[in-house]
Amino acid sequence: MGPMKKIVHQNFETQRLFIRPTSEEDADLIFQLMNAPKFLKFVGDRRIYSIPDALKYIQTNMLPQLYNLGYSNYSLIEKISGDKIGICGIYDRDGLDGVDIGFGLLPKYERFGYAYEASSRLIKAGFEEFHIQEIKAIVSKQNISSQRLLEKLGFESCGLIKLPNEKVEELLFRITK
Questions:
Q1: Measured over all CA atoms, what is the biggest interatomic distance in the chain, rounded to whole angstroms?
Q2: What is the per-residue pLDDT for 45?
Q3: Any idea which of 37-51, 75-89, 109-123 has the lowest mean pLDDT?
Q4: Is the dihedral of CA 160, 111, 113, 107 positive or negative?
Q5: How far is CA 83 from the centre of its chain?
Q6: Which of the listed residues 4, 28, 93, 101 has the most CB atoms within 10 Å of its CB?
Q7: In what order do the strands lie in the sheet with 17-21?
Q8: Distance between CA atoms of residues 93 and 81, nearest Å
Q9: Cβ–Cβ contacts within 10 Å for residue 114, how many?
Q10: Integer Cα distance of 75 and 11 in angstroms
Q11: In terms of CATH architecture, what is 12-176?
């Protein structure tokens, strides 16, 4: 596969965050985040054991969807410090009818409302700019804080789902335009 065309994709911002498509320069963030204890517990082991693994994951799992659909995974940058604090994205996932939203923060940035702020902005973009009619969310039954966040964002619980290659059923939520 040759080099992908460089396309300018939309960036977003909120009061406290810059939200921009995750790129190869974010391998450090992806490596740290996907090895954080809560990510491993609630999302799963993505087998990212090094920065090169994270780079390959971005190239294989994030950038193709960005180029195909115009949205994917976004890196969250705190405006005041310039720190990369986490991710949020809208994903076209195997085994799910439609798209789902996901978010994850580095541990020291949890509980400050950043996931709510980023998710709210991407839901608005999903409906208004990407013309998505419904966004789903998949969450572990044990992940009470993410379930509460989804409810605060306006999602409704709509049953259970078991994704391909996953062992356990998870809760399914949805929000419509």
A1: 43
A2: 86
A3: 37-51
A4: negative
A5: 17
A6: 101
A7: 12-13, 17-21, 73-78, 84-91, 99-105, 134-139, 170-176, 156-161
A8: 33
A9: 21
A10: 10
A11: 3-Layer(aba) Sandwich (3.40)
